[in-house]
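Regression test case RT-17, inverse folding.

Input:
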């Protein structure tokens, strides 16, 4: 595309660029620093939907979740200073989750810079460590060029966030410029030598493990990877919060490497003679604090496939490093011939059996059994239902007992960010209105972005929000009892009546105080035809799926005595 337009304001040039790059929805909190963009969006309302949120952190989370769900860069607009600092949490999430995202930030007028003007921040410094690229557009004539670069950087290589600062006076400048074309996907692929070496490593393996994770996946890539695992009868694990990259009901799926990983799976990583890691970075939570894979040279033979060549060898020196898109690598695997009777078949069956046993609900203190509730939901929810969550001990039940069956049914932050589940669910429902969307949040997690219920109601995003209420910051309390037993400090919470809170926004509100009450409450929520919140009150003793609060404290006291 190379089209000359008549004179336009910087705001109009920018919105035209968004349309060219395929943007159909933006998330925002309005601000006076980018009024010219808001005005241009008024003229583009037939092609770009504007979702107005209630806090910039929620808006940024929505954009990140949209990018994660669709694979296209999620777009967020916020104002300068406080708006940008609030939105930074979504940028950090996009970075660690490898999610394509573009954050546009209004900026002070160019003539006022470097005076610490009202709400002025140098965004190159502020976002330099948490974004792939930060740029300020000082000339409206360069908007097509720099916005094109922003989208190319966000979507290519290892996907991630880009921040674009927009001085408010630049947005009202009038220029006659040529628009750039839409951004293009550019990716590497494995060569024949890579595949020959991989085939040789597979042929020699006795206890291999395939680990899938990271960003940049497509439905076709997931399907091809599943076909490869089926033909090779390969055991497959997912990295932390990437469980929707492989059908959890598939006989070759053996669990996720995260906080809920069982001892059999952790042992399988340590004892593997070949780790085929596709997409995952092998971060702290996937490797149990970097203990499962030795740094810098793993004891296991490591085939590491990643979108970004800079990731290969950054922490772990691979036996074979392959820079490739997930799709091109998964396609290339279809050309490999499996052994007639893989030597690892009994090993894979043993791991699958251990995973299946872990799905059996464990009994927790109190009348509400979260394990049974999540197992019921796993069976009740449609296979394409989207499940979101933030951070907290409540998510351990979800990660252990819910089985994700299709690609892009799990939206959860790998950076362990609280407050993510509610806005992520709103973005998911707006993007996929025909699919069921369920948001999980703890009581602490929920109130970090609970105000986005107003956004759900405004846009008729009929999400089912499940608030697991135990009256504390559960994860921190767990660590506190492990390290400083019987010395509770700063972890107790006083909560509102969440049912009344939800109804005040115009949502359906339900209270669950026993396991048997959940299913009918959920069905009423589905039938309500509007956003619905189910408060599930759990016993504070039910702190983890395996151990109660008292058991955690007792073990810590015993260690102290020893």
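Golden output:
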């Amino acid at each position: 595309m190379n089209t000359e337009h008549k004179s336009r304001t910087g705001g109009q040039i920018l919105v035209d660029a968004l349309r060219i790059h395929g943007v159909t929805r933006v998330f925002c909190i309005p601000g006076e620093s980018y009024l010219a963009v808001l005005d241009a969006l008024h003229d583009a309302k037939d092609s770009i939907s504007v979702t107005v949120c209630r806090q910039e952190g929620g808006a940024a989370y929505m954009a990140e979740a949209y990018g994660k769900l669709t694979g296209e860069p999620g777009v967020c607009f916020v104002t300068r200073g406080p708006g940008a600092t609030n939105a930074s949490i979504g940028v950090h999430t996009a970075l660690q989750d490898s999610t394509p995202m573009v954050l546009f930030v209004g900026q002070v007028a160019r003539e006022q810079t470097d005076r610490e003007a009202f709400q002025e921040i140098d965004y190159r410094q502020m976002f330099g460590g948490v974004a792939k690229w930060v740029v300020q557009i000082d000339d409206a004539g360069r908007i097509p060029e720099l916005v094109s670069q922003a989208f190319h950087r966000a979507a290519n290589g290892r996907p991630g966030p880009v921040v674009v600062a927009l001085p408010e006076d630049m947005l009202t400048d009038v220029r006659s410029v040529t628009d750039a074309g839409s951004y293009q996907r550019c990716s590497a692929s494995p060569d024949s030598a890579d595949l020959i070496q991989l085939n040789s490593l597979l042929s020699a393996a006795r206890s291999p493990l395939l680990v899938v994770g990271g960003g940049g996946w497509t439905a076709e890539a997931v399907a091809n990877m599943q076909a490869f695992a089926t033909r090779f009868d390969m055991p497959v694990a997912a990295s932390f919060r990437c469980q929707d990259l492989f059908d959890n009901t598939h006989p070759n799926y053996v669990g996720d490497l995260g906080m809920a990983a069982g001892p059999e799976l952790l042992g399988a990583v340590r004892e593997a003679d070949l780790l085929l890691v596709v997409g995952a970075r092998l971060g702290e939570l996937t490797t149990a604090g970097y203990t499962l894979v030795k740094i810098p040279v793993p004891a296991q033979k490591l085939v590491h496939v990643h979108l970004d060549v800079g990731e290969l060898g950054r922490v772990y020196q691979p036996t074979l490093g392959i820079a490739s898109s997930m799709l091109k690598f998964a396609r290339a695997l279809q050309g490999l011939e499996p052994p007639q009777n893989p030597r690892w078949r009994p090993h894979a069956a043993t791991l699958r059996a251990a995973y299946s046993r872990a799905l059996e609900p464990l009994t927790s203190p109190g009348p509400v059994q979260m394990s049974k509730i999540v197992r019921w939901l796993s069976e009740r929810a449609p296979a394409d239902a989207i499940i979101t969550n933030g951070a907290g001990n409540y998510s351990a039940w979800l990660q252990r007992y819910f089985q994700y069956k299709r690609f892009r049914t799990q939206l959860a932050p790998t950076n362990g960010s609280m407050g993510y589940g509610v806005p992520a669910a709103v973005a998911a429902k707006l993007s996929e209105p025909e699919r069921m969307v369920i948001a999980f949040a703890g009581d602490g997690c929920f109130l970090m972005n609970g105000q986005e219920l107003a956004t759900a109601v405004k846009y008729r995003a009929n999400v089912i929000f499940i608030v697991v209420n135990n009256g504390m910051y559960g994860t921190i309390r767990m660590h506190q009892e492990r390290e400083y037993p019987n010395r509770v400090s700063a972890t107790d919470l006083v909560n509102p009546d969440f049912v009344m809170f939800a109804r005040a926004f115009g949502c359906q509100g339900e209270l669950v105080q026993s396991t048997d009450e959940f299913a009918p409450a959920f069905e009423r929520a589905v039938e309500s035809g509007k956003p619905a919140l189910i408060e599930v009150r759990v016993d504070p003793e039910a702190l983890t799926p395996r151990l109660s609060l008292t058991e955690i404290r007792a073990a810590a006291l015993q260690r102290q005595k020893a």
